Every structure is written in C-alpha cells, then in structure tokens.
Amino acid sequence: MLKNIPIPPPEKLTARGRDFAYPSSQSGDPNALREAEQRYTLDPQQLMTLARAETGLDDFGPGPFAEPLRVLCASLRDEVDLNAAGRENAHRRLMNLLVTRLRLQDLWTRHPRILDQPVSAPIFIVGLPRSGTTYLQRLMARDSTLRWSPFWELMFPLPFGQADAPVAQPDPRIAAAQAALDRLFQVAPEMMKMHEIEAEEPEEEIALLSLGFCSMAFEWSFAVPSYVDYYKRADHTQGYAYFKRVLQTLQWLRGGGQWLLKAPMHMENLDEIMTVFPDAVIVQTHRDPVTATVSLSSLTCTGIRNYFDHPNPLVVGDYISSAVERLLNGINAYRQAHPQQPIVDIQFRELMADPLTMVRRIYAVCGKTLAAEDEARIREYLDAHPRHKNGGHDYSADDFGIDLDERYRALSFYMQRYQVPAERRN
Prior knowledge:
By secondary structure, the chain is mostly helical. It has helices at residues 15-21, 30-39, 44-55, 66-78, 84-110, 133-140, 151-155, 172-187, 191-194, 206-210, 217-222, 225-233, 237-254, 270-276, 289-304, 313-337, 348-353, 355-366, 372-384, 404-410, 412-417, and strands at 123-126, 146-147, 258-262, 281-286, 343-347. It has one domain (10-417): Rossmann fold. Helix 4 (66-78) runs antiparallel to helix 12 (225-233) and helix 15 packs across helix 16 (313-337). The chain is globular, with a radius of gyration of 21 Å. The mean pLDDT is 94. This is Sulfotransferase.
C-alpha cells in the first residue's frame, strides 16, 4: 500500500485483516500495472496538457492549483503502491478535476455576474464521519428553503456539453451518477451497509472542495503521506474562496437558497470558513471518537481495496487514528480561540432519540422556523428510513491494530469537554 511499509505477514493479522491485506480476487498482474502506468499519467504537466486538449481551454482559474497538484502527483507516483485500477482511478479523478476547473473558469469569463450571487448564512454541519452528520443533513434537506447538492450534482457539477445551454429533463447526470453507484455497489456491496449513498440525496461536498485542494478526499483514498503533510500546513482560505465560487455557479445553474453543507474536513478549517463565509452557521455533531475511528478505518479499507493489491489495515488504522485526532484538535483550537462563536452542539445519542428537537435547536440559532409542511416531510423521511435498514456495519479495532485504551486516553480532551460518552465498541 505504501512503498516504504511492508505488508504484515498473515499470522500478524486478524481474519478480517487478512481479507483486506491478502484478497483472493487481486491478481497483481505486473503487465496490467505497466500498461496502466503508460496509459494513465500522473505527471502534472502531462495532465494539464491532456485537460487543455480535451476542452480546448487554457485557463485553470484562481486559487491553489499548481503546487498542490505537483505535490499530490509526486506522492501518488513515489510513495503509494497503486495497482492498475488504482492508477486509472487516480488519473481519472485528477483529469476530472482539471477539466472541471477549465470549464468553470470559461463559464465565469463568459458570465461574470455568476460571481455576484450571494451565498448567505450557509449552514455547515461539521463532525467526525459516523457521528450522524449524513443523517442530520438528510433530515434538514426535507426543508424546501434550504439548498443542497445531491450526489449526482457533486459528481458532475457542470452539465454535460455546453455548461450554459438548456439541460434536458430529467438531467442525464442523474442516470450517469446512478450507473456509477451501481458499479460501486456491485464490486463492494458491503459499502451500502457502511454508508448509504443515493444519487438524488445530499452528500458531503468532498469533490467540490477538491477543486480548490481544500479536501481530504485524496488522503482518504490513497494515503499519500507527503501530500498530507503539505495539506496540513497549507492555508486553505483561497481554496474555500474557490469553493464559494463553485456554490455561486451551482446556484446560477439550478437555483439558490440557504446552503446546507456537510463535510468532516471543515472541522480543521473553521478559520478559513468564517473568513470566506462570515455569517456561516456551524453545527457540530458529537459521538464517541474512538468508535468513529474504528468504523471509519473499516469504511476506508473497504473503499480502497480496489486500488491496491494489498491494502494494509494497520497503515489505515494508524492513519485514521491520526486524522481523527487532527480534526478534533483543529476544531477544539478554533473554539478555544473564539469562545463567543455560536456553534450548535448535537450529541449523536440525542439526535437518534429525538431528531426533530435537534433540528429545531439548529433553527433557533439560524433564526428559522420549521414550517408544518417541512416537518411533515421530515417525519415521512424518518418513517421510510429506519436506522440500519440495509443491515449493520460490523468492525473491530483489532482488525486495524487500534489500541482502544490508548485512543481513549489520546482523545479524552474532546470527550471530557463535550461530555461524549464512551461506547467501548470493538
């Protein structure tokens, strides 16, 4: 998985850890890898040349771009042991990013008033993965006054063809996104139990943040140690300014409203968010971070197993442990430095027990009232989406070499401050 860290021998792993590290379905065909390396470049200059040739455009737009791309490509090539499918995936994701940036800049040049669109009082749901952020966002998405991006729009932010031309209905991007999800759940059916994704439901805006390189998407998928070090040191203010431009563009294309946003990486970027969106409303969900660490390790290992012949569950467990601690330290430092900042705290157990009360708590801070028809839609959603309707998600700390006692000690600063109970799941 990482070139400088050997895969543990099978006897050092749990049965599930062995399934991750030594999957029977991976062939490790060196010919396939050599062909992928020739066909799918990870050289930044070559990628930019290909994107320009595909679009006939030249301007990649403002904000962070060339340097993070260079560092990311170097890490993917030199540090990460991708297989042929992983190489292709990394190449296609970078190409999509570059092509979208070219198309966005072209659209802004031809329609500069897009960037006059107001983005007023956006709601940012922040919290660790597995802490109820998706559940809360989908409940609030029943409110007709809120604007959110469905998965298909996050995957394809600009219409196919000419971006400012009329779009056929239903939008063909919906079917394309559903086809991508069908392929995902065919090769990794267990993902549905871990994190349900629906083409027309909201999702976190990881892909949109990636356009400005203020997203953890690449480290979630590929580890990329040098890029992670670069990302942690970077000031992401320009990246969030670019993200705002993207939101303005989506409003211009499909209509606006008060934005309802959600992503875990916002936790360590609140200074940048409040600089770019000074009237933003911040909602933080809380759940046992050790349970979240183990669960996220399992989700990550499952998600990356197609990119590596030998995913290393111990590397994943170590990285996810560090990332979770980093995110909690980031938001804790912000809240200590800005004690007057109104942030809505939502405990996971309270959200599960009484979701409508939690929504009303958020609305009280936003100065909003939950309309009767919107409350009815939330109740309908709750009835139609019981928890674990697709089955439970089983995971064990031992599979990823995570020492539960050590993690509880390391994260006690957070659990004590916000009175988060330990679940002690293994």
